[in-house]
């Protein structure tokens, strides 16, 4: 996947209410427009990387990119579980993420037993925790992308593949690499 690492940011919106939080694994959802801007070589599946909410500290994260069956398979979702315990929800705030590596493909939704899903997600978190300790990944945590997320104009409708080319169309969500 040549587009990795992939940087993007957007507003945290309400998800599909599938009860991620009840599973103990809340996932912050990006709006459709952010999802639609994903490069074609970023396939569906589970990724690990870094994330921050507004101007807050950078945390480890795991992200699921997949198709939501409730939307007749026409709507792909991007859900980020930040590996950190937050005091409050952060709907409406800006989530900045860098996706660094691919963990696995998404397992079929229909055949999924809930316990198996939880176990799989716990393993993903464990793998992300380990991988993100590598020195080459620590560098991305320090990336300027995370320094002033709110100074960069962010809306919910556009994206870019180059942080350096801040055209009107592409100033919002970016990939600096
Ligand atoms: P929804 O279906 O609306 O996405 P979830 O059950 O997935 O609902 O909960 C997601 C929300 O929980 C996020 O939008 C965020 O406001 C909050 N939240 C609290 N802690 C976390 C966390 N560690 N990672 C992601 N979201 C979190
Ligand atoms: N959903 C799936 O249907 N299959 C998966 O393999 C799967 N893996 C996930 C891995 C991670 C790290 C996360 C955060 C979510 C994953 N999901 C997966 C999405 C999950 O179904 C979604 O968050 C639901 O809202 C949980 O009820
Ligand atoms: Mg969610």
From TrEMBL:
EC supergroup of this enzyme: transferase
Gene: rfk
Pfam families recorded: Flavokinase
Single Gene Ontology MF annotation: riboflavin kinase activity
Function statement: Catalyzes the phosphorylation of riboflavin (vitamin B2) to form flavin-mononucleotide (FMN), hence rate-limiting enzyme in the synthesis of FAD. Essential for TNF-induced reactive oxygen species (ROS) production. Through its interaction with both TNFRSF1A and CYBA, physically and functionally couples TNFRSF1A to NADPH oxidase. TNF-activation of RFK may enhance the incorporation of FAD in NADPH oxidase, a critical step for the assembly and activation of NADPH oxidase.
UniProt source species: Clupea harengus (Atlantic herring)
Keyword Oxidoreductase among UniProt keywords: no
Gene Ontology cellular-component annotations: mitochondrion
Chain intervals with Basic and acidic residues compositional bias: 145-154
Tagged with keyword Transferase: yes
Protein name from the UniProt record: Riboflavin kinase
One GO term (biological process): riboflavin biosynthetic process
Superkingdom of the organism of origin: Eukaryota
Domain spans labelled Riboflavin kinase: 1-133
Catalysis performed (reactions): riboflavin + ATP = FMN + ADP + H(+)
Location of the region described as Disordered in the Swiss-Prot/TrEMBL record: 145-177
Positions with biased composition (Low complexity): 157-168
EC number: 2.7.1.26
Pathway where this protein functions: Cofactor biosynthesis; FMN biosynthesis; FMN from riboflavin (ATP route): step 1/1
Cofactor(s) this protein cannot do without: Zn(2+)
Key words of the record: ATP-binding, Flavoprotein, FMN, Kinase, Metal-binding, Nucleotide-binding, Transferase, Zinc
